[in-house]
Design brief:
Number of helices of chain B: 0
Number of strands of chain B: 11
Order of helices and strands of chain A: EEEEEEEEEEE
Radius of gyration of chain B: 13 Å
Number of helices of chain A: 0
Structural class of chain A: mainly beta
Largest interface: A-B, 24 and 26 residues
Strand content of chain A: over 45%
Helix content of chain A: under 10%
Oligomer: heterodimer
Structural class of chain B: mainly beta
Shape of chain B: globular
Strand content of chain B: over 45%
Largest sheet of chain A: 7 strands, mixed
Largest sheet of chain B: 6 strands, mixed
Shape of chain A: globular
Distance between the termini of chain B: 40 Å
């Protein structure tokens, strides 16, 4: 099976712009979770989608949003970008979508905000 | 909210056993504790998962005491390729769907 893919791999944006990141889960996986990774804050949970519904959300402002399509592919959007949004954004897919399921991570999208 | 604590870094030599402990409180009572490994420029990779007592697979063992307030990842006979960052992952007691990663332990294996 193909692994989790994320596009684009690298992105440079300017403050105030918005950005959309894409994640294609492993075939058959119905859950997609998004994480932000920074040197200072480590890996932080953003949100999780299961069968097109947001099941849970971390402690991030409303500028961070996401959605999941019927084929389980997911997108994450960040509006009004701030310098502090510079990070590696990781998506992970799993079969059943609970903490007990092994998550398969993609390589991430590195976002730089200037 | 669940809270985790891991050592920032550890050093070891090839062939030694390495034990990395994660302390965690307020974790979901009915959920697994999972450990991941991450190499530079890659996403984390699943190592092992357990609920209580001891679990062993082909690459590691995981020890979880009865109170589940900590877990210890044991890597037998490490090699240079085990140099990576290791994270524990737990579910929050309020909602097991809200996952909390530990801060990560950077393991350096020396020849």
């Amino acid at each position: 099976k193909a692994g989790v893919t994320q596009t684009p791999r690298y992105l440079i944006k300017t403050r105030g712009q918005q950005v959309t990141l894409s994640c294609s889960p492993i075939s058959g996986h119905r859950s997609v979770s998004w994480y932000q990774q920074t040197p200072g804050q480590g890996l932080q949970f953003l949100f999780e989608y299961f069968s097109e519904t947001q099941r849970n959300k971390g402690n991030f402002p409303g500028r961070f949003s996401g959605r999941q399509f019927s084929n389980s592919r997911s997108e994450m959007n960040v509006s009004t970008l701030e310098l502090g949004d510079s990070a590696l954004y990781l998506c992970a897919s799993s079969e059943g979508g609970t903490g007990r399921d092994e998550q398969y991570f993609g390589p991430g999208t590195r976002l730089t905000v200037t | 909210l669940a809270k985790t604590t891991q050592p920032i870094s550890m050093d070891s030599y090839e062939g030694q056993e390495v034990n990395i402990t994660c302390s965690h409180n307020n974790i979901a009572t009915n959920d697994y504790i999972t450990w991941y490994q991450q190499f530079p420029s890659q996403g984390p990779r699943f190592i092992i998962q357990g609920y209580k007592t001891k679990v062993t697979n082909e690459v590691a063992s995981l020890f979880i005491p009865a109170d589940r307030k900590s877990s210890t990842l044991s890597l037998p006979r490490v090699s240079l390729s085990d140099t990576a960052v290791y994270y524990c992952l737990v579910g929050d007691k309020g909602s097991s769907y809200k996952l909390i990663f530990g801060s990560g332990t950077r393991l350096l294996v020396r020849p």
